[in-house]
Amino acid sequence: MGAMTTETLTAIPSCGETCFLRHGEQLEALRSLLPSLDQGGPLLCWSAGCASGAEPLSLAMLLREAGRSGDRILATDSSAAELGAARAACYGDWTLRRVDEGRRARWFLPTGAGWRPVAELREMVEYRLHDLRSDPPPWGFDLVVCRNVLIYFDGAGALRALDRLLSAVRPGGLLLLGPVELPLARSLPAEPVRVGGATLLRRRLDA
Ligand SMILES: C[S@@+](CC[C@H](N)C(=O)[O-])C[C@H]1O[C@@H](n2cnc3c(N)ncnc32)[C@H](O)[C@@H]1O
Predict the structure, then answer these.
(1) What are the tens digits of pLDDT across the range 24-73?
(2) What is the mean pLDDT of residues 198-203?
(3) Eight-class DSSP state of 195
(4) Buried b (16+ CB within 10 A) or exposed e, 16-27
(5) Taking 60 as the threshold, does the pLDDT of residue 148 lie above it?
(6) pLDDT at 4 > cutoff 60
(7) Pocket of ligand 1 (CB under 6 A)
(8) DSSP state of 12
(9) Secondary structure, 3-state, 19-61
(10) Is pLDDT at 116 greater than 60 in this prediction?
(11) Which domains, from first to last, does the chain contain?
(12) Residues linked to residue 115 through DSSP beta bridges, in sequence order
């Protein structure tokens, strides 16, 4: 993020479908489950396959709107280009298409070339290169979010990645997958938690 000024920013095209507040029903479910993750300290979250950063920054927004502070989000992707866009943090209207006027005014600054999330959100997120197929997973997270990534893996690769993702969740923590990826997780040692139209997975305490 460093020395880049708002004058030099341009909205960088990236993973075309990613956007802020994607799968809103899942984020609402997560909002209601946040108290169940609270162990008295900051929450540690991992957004795996974060693309240009809209997903981890949406998590940051949700956590701040819930009145939390001090939470940290690790955001990883295997694409250096996506991480470059994430670190530049300047987004076009299409990426903000689900953000209403109130949130736009609260959480984004217009730069002339696009929209820049406020520092309060950006500072919660650390970006890192990480390949879900080959790199050892980080661990100890209260929440792991990996959506619309495993759809690009073959069946065996997706199952290996799911094992790694769940191993990154602390016992009792939550794993959030994309709606179409959820059926892949049937055999994981995790309990489905259904809220509204969304299902998250809670890692079993004995797993
Ligand atoms: C469709 S985007 C999803 C972005 C975001 N999770 C969302 O739901 O909006 C898929 C992302 O997964 C990343 N990806 C693909 N294969 C990966 C791998 N093996 N390890 C980590 N990230 C990967 C791509 O670079 C891309 O940024």
Answers:
(1) 999 999 999 999 999 999 999 999 999 999 999 999 999 999 999 999 99
(2) 98
(3) E
(4) eebbbbbbeebb
(5) yes
(6) no
(7) 15, 17-18, 22, 49-51, 55, 77-79, 82, 131-133, 147-149, 152
(8) P
(9) CCCCCHHHHHHHHHHHHHHCCCCCCEEEEECCCCCHHHHHHHH
(10) yes
(11) 20-31+41-203 (3.40.50.150)
(12) 91, 110
Q: Determine contact, residues 203/166, Cβ cutoff 8 Å.
A: yes
Structure tokens at 70: 């001090």
Which residue shows structure tokens 């495993």? 150
Residue from 52, 78, 95, 147 whose mutation best tests the ligand 1 pocket (most atoms within 8 A of CB): 78
**Token pair in block for residue 7:** 């004058």
Q: Distance between CA 89 and CA 134 in Å, rounded?
A: 27
Interval between CA 15 and ligand 1 midpoint (Å): 8
d(CA 113, CA 15): 18
CA 23 to chain CA mean position, Å: 11
